[in-house]
Amino acid sequence: RRCFLATGDCGPPPAMTHSRPSSEELPDSFPVGSRVTFTCTGGARRIPGLPDTVECLPGNLWSRLAEPCGRSCAAPPRLRFAALSKEAERMNFFPVGTNVSYVCRAGYENTSESSPSSTCLEDLTWSEPAELCRSEYL
After folding, report:
1. Are 48 and 25 in contact (CB under 8 A)?
2. Is residue 6 pLDDT above 70, yes or no?
3. Which residue intervals define the domain Sushi in the entry (predicted)?
4. Residue 2 — very low, low, confident or very high, per pLDDT cuts 50/70/90?
5. Given this model, what pLDDT does residue 7 score?
6. Strands 45-46 and 82-84, bridge-based pairing
């Protein structure tokens, strides 16, 4: 192994918590202009809208990269009596603590002041939404 960095060499790419470089074999040397793309690990999901590639810049520095992956629940549960709110429908990343609300479906009326909702829990499952919508046909 080399003990010194060649001119214009960035060294190993930055370590990430929920992602690793996507290529199995990384070269020993990263000249200026080299790019390394990261993929999610350990069940983490890609955070929409964030870049996932670093580039070796002049000065032997990697470009800054925020963690491109994170822990997220899968899509919220579908309910017989309620549909996801428009706002929740547009979301595609659900970190721990995310709360989504539902709207009673046609044929169901809300039986309380609050809307049914569900929260992404620490174990990446959803809390059970309260059945706050009652069929109008009972």
Report:
1. no
2. no
3. 71-135
4. very low
5. 60
6. unpaired
Cα–Cα distance, 122 to 72 (Å, whole number)? 9
List, in order of start, the domains of the chain with CATH numbers: 19-70 (2.10.70.10), 82-135 (2.10.70.10)
Q: Which amino acid is at 98?
A: T
SS3 27: coil
Q: Is the pLDDT of residue 59 over 60?
A: yes
C-beta neighbour count of 125 within 10 angstroms: 13
Residue 54 has which token pair? Answer: 């670093």
Tokens of 28: 């020993």
Query: Who contacts 117 (Cβ-Cβ below 8 Å, separation ≥6)?
Result: 99, 100, 101, 102, 129, 130
pTM assigned to the model: 0.74
The owner of tokens 């983490």 is 44
Two structure tokens written together for 107: 């044929």
- Residue carrying structure tokens 């214009």: 8
Token pair in block for residue 60: 């032997």
Q: To 5 degrees, how large is the angle CA 117–CA 122–CA 123?
A: 100
